[in-house]
């Protein structure tokens, strides 16, 4: 579904992504983990051109996303993105947040968009909040609305950039529950997260990154029980320590 070929990215002299070669297959759930500053979020943001690259190619459904003439808005409408900060439109109700893009970019009528949005809000447990303002919701509720908003475009690929990092601990579970539900439906997902329990439970593959490189690719069982790279071994040892503060 999405293929990275020798992708490199710099911020000035800082080499943020180093020779990344990776393929995400349709229906696959891939978790990207690693210490802070390892390039995880930068990597996932290149998938839909939120971050430009300086060399290499990124193919989505066989098409080079940096090719001349690529309609970025149409391209991005096929990739759902859920951010660390919820990024809901504060001046729109929950329902309006979920209907605006399908109406403007997909040409749905208001009735069609409302029906789709309400079904998705029901799915994430927030149909009763359809007419609420984002400011009236908890962090966990806002993130669930953000997921519903992304799904309203019916994207074949969903990207999650540390979707629980801005939440209070008691709100993390409600967001992960929605994400687990998506994996059961066969949604193709790439998720940057520090939630190792979630990675162990739902991922098909784990990518471990450090210093802009993918150092290890493994099934959850192999990664958590038999990590091969010394840096991955150190990372897992640190997060298992009762004194670890987390990456």
From TrEMBL:
SUPFAM superfamilies recorded: P-loop containing nucleoside triphosphate hydrolases (SSF52540)
One protein family per Pfam: ABC_tran
Membrane as UniProt keyword: yes
Keywords: ATP-binding, Cell membrane, Membrane, Nucleotide-binding, Transport
Family: Belongs to the ABC transporter superfamily.
Keyword presence, Transmembrane: no
Protein name from the UniProt record: Glutamine transport ATP-binding protein GlnQ
GO molecular function list: ABC-type amino acid transporter activity; ATP binding; ATP hydrolysis activity
PROSITE patterns assigned to the protein according to its UniProt record, in alphabetical order: ABC_TRANSPORTER_1, ABC_TRANSPORTER_2
Organism: Variovorax paradoxus
Domain of life of the source: Bacteria
Domain ABC transporter: 2-236
């Amino acid at each position: 579904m999405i293929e990275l070929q020798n992708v490199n990215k710099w911020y000035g002299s800082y080499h943020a992504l180093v020779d990344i070669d990776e393929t995400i297959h349709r229906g696959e759930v891939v978790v990207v983990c690693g210490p802070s500053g390892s390039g995880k979020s930068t990597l996932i943001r290149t998938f839909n051109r939120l971050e430009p690259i300086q060399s290499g190619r990124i193919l989505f459904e066989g098409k080079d996303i940096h090719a001349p003439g690529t309609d970025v808005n149409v391209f991005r409408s096929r990739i759902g993105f859920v951010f660390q900060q919820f990024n809901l439109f504060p001046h729109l109700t929950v329902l309006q947040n979920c209907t605006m893009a399908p109406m403007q970019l997909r040409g749905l009528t208001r009735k069609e968009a409302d029906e789709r949005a309400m079904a998705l809000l029901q799915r994430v447990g927030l149909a009763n909040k359809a007419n609420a303002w984002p400011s009236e919701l908890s962090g966990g509720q806002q993130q669930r609305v953000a997921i519903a908003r992304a799904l309203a475009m019916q994207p074949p690929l969903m990207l999650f950039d540390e979707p629980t990092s801005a939440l209070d601990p008691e709100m993390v579970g409600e967001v992960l529950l929605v994400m687990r539900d998506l994996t059961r439906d066969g949604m193709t997902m790439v998720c940057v997260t520090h939630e190792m329990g979630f990675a162990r439970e739902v991922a098909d593959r784990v990518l471990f990154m450090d210093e802009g490189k993918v150092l290890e690719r493994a099934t959850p069982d192999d990664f958590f029980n038999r990590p091969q790279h010394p840096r991955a071994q150190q990372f897992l040892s640190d997060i298992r320590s009762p004194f670890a503060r987390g990456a």
